[in-house]
Design goal:
Layout lengths: L1 E6 L2 E4 L4 E9 L6 E7 L6 E6 L5 E3 L7 E5 L5 E6 L8 E9 L2 E4 L3 E6 L1
Parallel strand pairs: 2-11
Antiparallel strand pairs: 1-3, 3-8, 4-5, 4-9, 5-6, 7-8, 9-10, 9-11
Length: 115
């Protein structure tokens, strides 16, 4: 089992910035593939940014140039630096970790962007 705990959400005005953090514990591994997803009100959960197994990064088109994903060398912490936030970025943000055939999710952290 892997436990994921997100932090860093909150309320911010449009144009502002927030930094989300996710820490993995339990049966972690350097093979963890971690990323961020979000679910806006009334919508399905969607990819925001993620590392891929070969170490490259995928971003949703809607966040390219505004959000940056990063991680620590041990690959047990992943961060999401969000800048130039827009009201449409309002959502619950989830950390996701994949290890082999197993996928783990954090409990989510609320990000609200006011106009």
């Amino acid at each position: 089992q892997v436990q994921l705990v997100e932090s860093g959400g909150g309320l911010v005005q449009a144009g502002g910035s927030l930094r989300l953090s996710c820490a993995a514990s339990g049966r972690t591994s350097s093979d963890n593939v971690m990323g961020w997803y979000r679910r806006a009100p009334g919508k399905q959960r969607e990819l925001v940014a993620t590392f891929t197994p070969d170490g490259t990064i995928n971003y949703a088109d809607s966040v390219k140039g505004r959000f940056t994903i990063s991680r620590d060398n041990a690959k047990i912490r992943v961060y999401l630096q969000m800048s130039s936030l827009k009201p449409e970025d309002t959502a619950v943000y989830y950390c996701r970790a994949a290890l082999g055939n197993y996928v783990y999710w954090g409990q989510g952290t609320q990000v609200t962007v006011s106009s």
